[in-house]
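note to self: dont lose this again. the chain is below, predicted strucutre after it. 214 aa total, dont forget to put it in the shared folder this time
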Amino acid sequence: MKVQENIIISDDFFFIVLIIAFLLSAILKSSYWKHTKILLKATFAQRYANQYLREDNVFTERVNIISFLIMTLTFSVIIIKKLAVISLLQSLITIGLVFIFYMMKIIAIKVLGYLFMIKDFSKLAIFFSLIYDRSVGILLLPLILVLCFFSFEIYIELLYFIFCVIGFFILVKLYMLWKIARRMYAVSHFYIFLYLCTLEFFPILILGKSLFIG
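---
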């Protein structure tokens, strides 16, 4: 066990992870590009989000799964690079924790929707909560490639630029969730506040503390 913990990750680890991520993105491009474009556009225009939701079928489900995996790998690499993780075991654990976090988030939203009898909104909350994360996971892939394999003096600046992009998408996501909850489902401010604090703000604060404060 100690031997495994002492295995140091190298560029080969990031190469394999990014190869998988780019392979998955190539599958989206070659086989599901129509639905992937709608997914990416839905991040910036609600009419595309509505179109994507209307086209709920096996193809959109596959796009959801593939983009979810890309998102998991992308965010995991960012966390590993920011924390300067050097252990192979810890890096694999990081990927696993990111995956588990999102799965638990989906389950928690469904449970809250059931408890507060807002199941329809919970479905939309899952969609809009993940659509921005999945989209930014795909869009950041080229920058992650540069971050991992190019040696230059703006490494820190690039890393923080990536966090700024993620932060922007988070703010847009929070605004859209609040807007949809109030306008389409007339969910009370209390329930919206409870959801945002529990499943959006709190995890971000915990992660931010770990990444920037230690």
